[in-house]
Amino acid sequence: MPQLHSETFAGALRRAAGFDLAQVGIEERLAQIPSLESLADLPEGTPVWIRADLDVADHDGVIGDDPRLASLHETLEFGRQHGWRMLLIGHRGRTADKTLEYVYQKLRTLEPGCGPFIKDWFDERAETLTGIAVKGVESLQPGQFLVFENVRQYDFERRLWTAVEEQLPLLTDHFARIAAAFRQGATVYVNDAIASGNKDFSTTALPLAMGRVALGAYARREFAEHAVRARDAGLISFSGMKLDKLKQLHGIVKRGSAKVILAGGSLAMALRRADGEIRGEEASIGAAGNAENKDEKAYVPRSAVERARQLLVDAAEKGVKVVLPVDFVTLDGSIATDLGPDQWQRDIGPATRELFDREAKAWAETSERKIAFHNGVMGQFENSGFANGTIALVQTLKDLHEAGVAVYVGGGEGRAALERFASLDDVTHAFTAGGTILKCLADRPLPFLEALASQATEA
């Protein structure tokens, strides 16, 4: 089976790792990547690597019904029908200490043809699959699958996360050797892990050493049927504590489709401070702006304010209306329009809830492109004292959907809040992958799509 030769591998890895950015839309990338059906001609018994979404939570070792595991069914069923021997790899969390054994036990109850769970499956010193791993692959009957332990237990999986361009030549040689070792198990690769937006070895480098690749059934449908349409959203509702979302929101603004943005959480704190500076006023953001709190998750550093400032400048140039909170629920449960130096905001206040609802519905009445996208939550919704902002926003989304607006909700907390305070049927679609969809909306390249496209077009 063909694979990328060394020079092509290096170039493809550079692109997938984001060092050679190509301005290619998601639609064009999807057209370059083979579908799952393209592998229907594989002989029975062919081993196939499947990069799966296994990053699910357990409660004392018990995993409930999880949409990420359910999303694997279609690809696994396709493999069973065609007699593949399927090798599942994935991770839990960002570190190596979370086992996939609980996930494996759950999959045994969900999917037929479950084979072994293999813990120590790669020898990093020898750069080869262990004998146990090879025997595990050989033991599989056509239509069965096995699960390898958390791939992030191995250093190679995480080495590209913080790599700088000068390190890439050495990493390329190392990755080429590791990827070649993976060919001991299989030379066909399917990625059905839509949430795998990081620069992991298993998503960014491994496909480049495979003979054939494809995008899984669920991942393709999420992109082609839903993410592509969500990219045209005119209303964007954005919130959360992760300030790196400012980069994604800025990318959405620069794309030019958004007309109205509703912002909450720490994102709103950064935007509020930047908006005040633009107007020549002091906008209080409370304890979030105090450098003494720099170790707190809700702290807003100067770099975030600078990013927010440029975002607001670009939004003004493109005619995008950015709506910020006008009051807050503080840590002690009181309502404040201005935050004192020791006050933390934990939710949007009642006036802001009404403002956001009014602005969203005003947009819906005048917009010809009735598509809305929401990501995040307005407060610490797990605590009933700080849940009202999120409850109100969910109701607004329901009202928009009932009025004929196509409403899309990002994964993670946004989806969890929707399921808690309403239902998935109250919107058009709720994604299982928040960060990946944000990158897609912001026109940022996704490493695993870049890798799949490179292998498919150049091998």
Write up this protein:
The protein has two domains: 6-224 and 445-458, 3-Layer(aba) Sandwich (Rossmann fold); 233-368 and 371-404, 3-Layer(aba) Sandwich (Rossmann fold), CATH 3.40.50.1260. Helices cover 42% and strands 14% of the residues. The protein has helices at 6-16, 26-32, 67-71, 73-81, 101-110, 131-139, 155-158, 168-182, 201-204, 217-230, 245-255, 265-279, 302-317, 350-366, 388-402, 413-421, 434-441, 447-458, and strands spanning 47-51, 85-89, 114-118, 122-123, 128-129, 145-148, 188-191, 212-215, 235-238, 260-263, 321-323, 328-330, 335-336, 345-348, 371-375, 406-409, 429-430. The strands form four sheets. A six-stranded parallel sheet has the order 3-6-2-1-7-8, with helices on both faces. A six-stranded parallel sheet has the order 11-10-9-15-16-17, sandwiched between helices. It is globular and about 65 Å long.
Topology record:
Layout: H1 6-16, H2 26-32, E1 47-51, H3 67-71, H4 73-81, E2 85-89, H5 101-110, E3 114-118, E4 122-123, E5 128-129, H6 131-139, E6 145-148, H7 155-158, H8 168-182, E7 188-191, H9 201-204, E8 212-215, H10 217-230, E9 235-238, H11 245-255, E10 260-263, H12 265-279, H13 302-317, E11 321-323, E12 328-330, E13 335-336, E14 345-348, H14 350-366, E15 371-375, H15 388-402, E16 406-409, H16 413-421, E17 429-430, H17 434-441, H18 447-458
Parallel strand pairs: 1-2, 1-7, 2-6, 3-6, 7-8, 9-10, 9-15, 10-11, 15-16, 16-17
Antiparallel strand pairs: 4-5, 12-13, 12-14
Helix pairs in contact: 1-8, 1-18, 11-13, 12-13, 14-15
